[in-house]
Amino acid sequence: MAEETGSKVAAASLDARNGNFICGVVEGFYGRPWTTEQRKDLFQKMKKWGMDSYVYAPKDDYKHRAYWRELYTVEEAEHLTGLIQAAKDQNITFYYALSPGLDITYSNQKETTTLKRKLEQVAEFGCTAFALLFDDIEPEMSEADKEIFQTFAQAQVSITNDIYQHLGQPKFLLCPTQYCSTRAVPNVANSEYLNTLGSKLAQDIDIMWTGNKVISRHLANENIQEITDVLRRPPVIWDNLHANDYDQKRVFLGPYSGRSPDLIPKLRGVVTNPNCEYGANYIAIHTLAQWSRCNLDAQRDFSINDSISADIKLETETEDGLSGEDVPVTLSPNIYHPKQALRNAIKDWLPEFSKYKAAWGPIAKPQPAVAIVPVPIIPSINTCMSLTTGTTTLTASGASQPVVCPNQLQALAEVCSTVSSVTDTIMTPGPGPVMNSLVSDTKVVTNDSIPNPIAAVPIPIPLVDGRSKSITILEGAVIKTDKVKSNGTPIIGDTTIRDGQRAVSRDENVMSTDPSISNESSLSPSEPMDCNSTPNISPAHGNKTADESSDDIAMSENSTSSGSMQIEPNESNHMIVETLTEKDRKESELTYEDLALLCDLFYLPFEHGAQGLQLLQEFQWLKSNAHIVISANQRKDHSNPELEEWFARAEKMNEMSEAVNRLLLHMTACNNRELLYDLYSYIWDIRGVISLLNSYIKWLGFSKGWKEAFMSGEQEPWVFRGGLTADLQRLIPVDSGNDLFAYKVPDAPTCKVFTIRPYLGSDEAQVYDVCNRTCKDGLEDHMPLLPELKNVYADRLVGPYVTLHPEFSFVVEDDAVIVGYACAAPDHRKFRIKQEIAWIPEMCEKYPVHLAQSTTSSVQECISHFHNFKNEVFVNSPTHPASMICSLLPSVLDHSVSKRLVTCLLASLRANGFFGVHAAINSTDSYTHAFYGKLGFSENTQDGVKGKIVMGRTF
């Protein structure tokens, strides 16, 4: 038996060497599917690059999974037939996949007949290859199935073999429920499930495998050999390396890596399950195609192989921790090097941006909305905050230089691909809308008339006090009944409701956490192949839980996840039209350097690109060595070489920020609007964060004081998804500021760049102008004022801050014109004393009492303030000792600007040992009240002042 198995494996490996190797793409992610037009474009590219297979398996295309039983309508059939023919025209094998595992009864002959009829219909469209996917389902059989089948694996094998024979033994793929090593129970070698598949499944059916984990950093020979022995056939790798459906903040533009070409003879094939955004997958697919044509690994030590010259041994990492750039020019075509593959792909990708393509619908993320919840704190998850004593090097001047170890970044992706350690704390995302990608060439539509079988349904739950309220709970929360009333109605005692990143408690309809519930429920991280943890709710089972009170009731959050996807209503078919002149586009052409930077900023799940790492390192070094600037300012000695190095590296940081600004500008001007809309939100987001870091560095250069406590770098890291954007955000010293990084992406691309920088004395006139234009609850006072009163509002509101505390003042510019400011005083009590001594006497002289006659009440209030300053009641808050003022012109429509501006201000306060700030506004100022509210400020009733509202926040 062993010899027979070995011969079959050897024969399969020989087939791979002879070209019978599956290489292509599986559209298998959660969220908005690709459009018909995009899939046809994919087929053309795949043929050009020598790839041969496409697997149609979009999780949220409703007749693939949720409504797998339903046949296609005439309109849908026409589109699917066209897709299959388009694949044939390009010599691409079109695998049609179904995911019936949510609710199929394997022993029910009607179910089998329904499944056969559905696949027969697709076969009539010209399809000759099929797949059954049993991933992301509960490994439990129904009572009816248990009477027929001994194990879950036997049930799946039985129906799969039956379908395979019924269709005439076509090309066939199976995705098992245990599809990676971490999901094998108890392990790969001893998994009864996997061994049953290996021994009982028809030998010509190929089995899919993701590797050691859902998202595998590396595919090792040992893992592939182990699964091959168990399955008795080489696996087809379903590769989630570039999948981003588990994180709305990340897109992966790095090269295919972590998989040696040595594996190719040991595999049946590789299909990549890439980014949700079709336009973002050029690099992922192009580099996979290059990899599939190679048989030698450039990252292997060739010096141990006599047949290969040691001269072509490559360095993959330089001494400073950055990814190596030393790729030999004469690299042999059969040697795969990720960096060289990336360069080749970028060169081919660049012309795509010049093609004229329209965008359909506003900028939106195609991923399903992910509920942000706490994840286990891993010491190395914060790449720059977790530096140890062994992670520093010395610069030429002798100053210590933190080095970011790229291996530390594995921790972030580990969170997304580990099941056992975090199942009790991670909630999966709520379900998206029912979507259909087979009724239009250019867009995906929602089917509002079709209820989502996995959607949230408010269910009346009698609470302990007898009152009944309808509540919805995040998908995956399993409600356990503590006791039952005499009439049989369950009483719910405890469960968990997640709000943002923390469990919240409300008196009536939010209950406390019950550890026993989370331990028994099957919650798992939001992974590319595991975004739905309510498999028992489906069209066939939707009504069961209502009548069976003894069963667990799985409910889901009534979220607005559809708002986060780029989908269109059925009746809508509008094209986005933008006004951008041809001259503007020619002057802003995208370059190779732009795309290389873009790829480095959004690289891979476990590593950042070279320029991304450089950003992290430069900021960390500048922040950690800011004492050099402070010391030089105190000694008034600017000849120190260390000081010169600090400012030289600060300028380098500024140049990197400018390069990201140019990337945004050039990307916004490209002809391919569809591609732009896929990438814009990511570029826009990270540009803002890098600009914020650059602004903070500029402030450090101006700073006159510093708290040594800040230099320790011991602030609490933020543990949330987000890739390089999140890693950069963590470097800003604002612990409780997650809300300040929640931005709404513009509906249409804009190349307008707002720059935040420290206040200079020469900015006074422009800052005063902004203040005067926003003094009346965000608007200008249109009543004409005497010349001597033109600055009375600014002298009252912002003048004391920029005069007495310019080091805590920031401005925001638009095309070199100041459009907003944020100013603070770290200690409001001392600030009052300074005003009384150094500001108020000058103002009383500038604005004598008689000027208040025959003028507006607002001007009278300002003048009265100056002359009655001593007698005024002021805020004296122990929890919010600092005071601030912030204002932007109404023309600034980008809401992220105010958040980034305030983040800079709060970071400067925290760096000097202050952790709470307040703003006092007029009680009638509704706009200003809402403005501060959106910045995370809340009313502080304890510090109330007559006629004023005091709003504060900590950070």
What features would you describe in this structure?
With 955 residues, the protein is α/β, with parallel strands linked by helices. The protein is elongated and about 100 Å long. The protein contains 29 helices and 31 strands. The longest helix has 30 residues, at 673-702. The N and C termini lie far apart (67 Å). The protein has an 8-stranded parallel barrel. Helix 9 packs across helix 10, helix 16 packs antiparallel against helix 18 (641-668) and helix 19 (673-702) runs parallel beside helix 28 (895-911). Residues 1-7, 9-18, 301-325, 371-430, 455-526, 531-573 and 704-720 have low confidence and may be disordered.
Largest sheet: 8 strands, parallel, barrel
Mean pLDDT: 76
Q: State the low-pLDDT regions, or none.
A: 1-7, 9-18, 301-325, 371-430, 455-526, 531-573, 704-720
Strand content: 5-15%
State the shape. Answer: elongated
Number of helices: 29
Work out the radius of gyration.
Answer: 31 Å
Structural class: alpha/beta
